[in-house]
Amino acid sequence: MDHNHGMEEMAPPSPTNNAMPMMHMAFFWSKNAEILFSGWPGRRTGMYVLALIFIFVLCVIVEWLSHCKWIKESCSNLSAGLIQTAIYGLRMGLVHMVMLAVMSFNVGVFIVAVCGHTFGFFVFGSRVFKKTDEFGSISDLPSVSC
């Protein structure tokens, strides 16, 4: 008589058969990580570097979207609202993609994400490349609307 009642079919895969990849729950430093997609970047150093560059560029794009002036003064409220909504949706999608990459717990990904946001803010949000307004002033920090 079978006392398992078919439970052996529902048993989770064992760690020895490599059916499920290892999911890190603490920071680790390795080029052997899965970032965003199953099997990506794999075990090749070049693909890991490409993944880091991709995350960096995503962060810079997020900062660019956050600090650029997209709406002309002559735009109607409807047009301005649609443009704002589209850019906000794109920005939130990219921000959440970066968040998911950081959730790989890979130290390299975390460092690159912070550096990408910092560099993007330096170029698009800081005083370095901005002109002063008609009163000669610039806000110390940009508005945060996340």
Summarize the structure.
The chain has 146 residues and is mostly helical. The protein has helices spanning 45-67, 77-102, 107-124, and strands at 33-34, 41-42.
Question: How would you sum up this structure, described in words?
Answer:
This protein has 3 helices and 2 strands, in the order ββααα. The protein has helices at 45-67, 77-102, 107-124, and strands at 33-34, 41-42. It has a two-stranded antiparallel ribbon. Pfam families: Ctr. It is a multi-pass membrane protein. It is found in: Membrane. This is Copper transport protein.
Properties at a glance:
146 residues, ion transport, single chain, copper, two-stranded antiparallel ribbon, elongated, mainly alpha
